[in-house]
Fold:
Amino acid sequence: MSTPNTLNAALLQISHGDDIDAKLSAAAKQGAHLIVLPELHDHPYFCQTKDPQHFALAESIPGPCTSHYSQLARQHSVVLIISIFEKTNTRHFHNTAVVFDTDGQLAGRYRKMHIPEGPNYYEQYYFSPGDLGFEPIQTSIGKIGVLICWDQWFPEAARLMTLAGADILVYPTAIGWDPVDDEDEKQRQLDAWIIVQRAHAVANSLPVIVCNRTGFEKDPGGNTSGIDFWGNSFICGPQGELLGSLNATQSSILSARIDLNRTDEVRHVWPYLLDRRIDGYHDLIQQKLTNRIKK
Amino acid sequence: MSTPNTLNAALLQISHGDDIDAKLSAAAKQGAHLIVLPELHDHPYFCQTKDPQHFALAESIPGPCTSHYSQLARQHSVVLIISIFEKTNTRHFHNTAVVFDTDGQLAGRYRKMHIPEGPNYYEQYYFSPGDLGFEPIQTSIGKIGVLICWDQWFPEAARLMTLAGADILVYPTAIGWDPVDDEDEKQRQLDAWIIVQRAHAVANSLPVIVCNRTGFEKDPGGNTSGIDFWGNSFICGPQGELLGSLNATQSSILSARIDLNRTDEVRHVWPYLLDRRIDGYHDLIQQKLTNRIKK
Structure:
């Protein structure tokens, strides 16, 4: 399939409760070809606490949520990446991103492979680890390597999407500060998060789109100080260069023009992928320091 | 072996021709426990051109070069990381880092695994790919994961050193600008290089030391505009936070105090390594986009 060389990418950095449909419409009117929503955008970030009632938020695919966004993708003629708490037809649960093409067709889905578990982020209580691997999703604007939040910390995930032919890496996320941390720690955490994702662009010579939540959400369990979602969504090119970024508190659309040909130019100058030492990488798939052994 | 919790790390960002021994002595007098030299520091960066005469620069281990630096490590009672064009006793050639412990003993060596090949960096002409894998080297101050220059672009390398127990990642490098590139491209390249290495710290929760050359070196073959080595050596902590850095042109010692306990604290907050999906990583060791197939 022939793909365009440049595209207008947009993301919606939103707080829970924002009018997503209106913002989608506005982004489309600005000329977006691709629109990204943050992780689990239709709900408060319920994983702050372990509550069996929250399983009622899960939906099948197709279902009301995907029907709604499918229609919006078609109506606006955009590639749209949404995030959903998925219940499978065998009654399992995943943290899933769904990609709609410009005609509203479901182009594919990605089930979050790396699931966090810790204070304020009890995702292993809700979600099974993804079972579809690291496969980019073909759309009319290119192959999109969708990864989700905690996947950000794993260069393996970005590399696998690249090896499988991704043209762009996209990260819907929901991450923020613990309000009790001091300002230095908050800055280090934010910088680490930005750096590691810009580095996925660098290491793979691909553009990267990161769409985070903003705004404070209290812990529904009342056990912690809640999460101050740190925004700072960004779009960068294949050298990690920022094409656009938002601050911590903006609830707004971020747009940037991505030149997919730039990846070729960068790979001509620094052709890392030719020099991978697969003969020396075997320990990457050995049981070392890893809890989840599912071979 | 019990290792100290904090250590004074130093690196020598030097131009070819600088008095390395004097700078080593100065760094030791400042209290360094660990001193890092840049890639192939005893020679001009001869890989700018393919010239069979340059093979005469290769040395065996042990040999005059390692004897010299072994004595300096013992004399100053520092762990010392040097970089050498190694000729093996079977007449093969490697780009090798050697680590001496504080008593001058050779603690171990690392042979550069990823070898670049392109204008100004014809390393595949000179060096066989490393054959010792990604093994950190045990010293009296901890296990040091030494990687070399082009290895910087491969998150796989940093991860493998981490899985094998590294306490610190160290990159001796020799990288610079093509003087004919415009300023925007130069800035993007430098930023990419800094970001990707700070991200190795982030993704692995380890401190990282990067020691680069500075100064201009002409192409001995006369075919290109030479290399303007871009310096910018740095030391960062396990969240990628800069503990110290130099600019492009400083020929000087950079020192920073590294707290190895900080790695524990960071891994308690963001314990990525527990959540690796080794069951989904198999394609990392498949022949995809890779020239060097040596299974």
About this structure: The helical segments of chain B are 20-29, 64-76, 123-126, 155-163, 183-204, 261-269. Chain B has a mean pLDDT of 96. DSSP finds six helices and 17 strands in chain B.
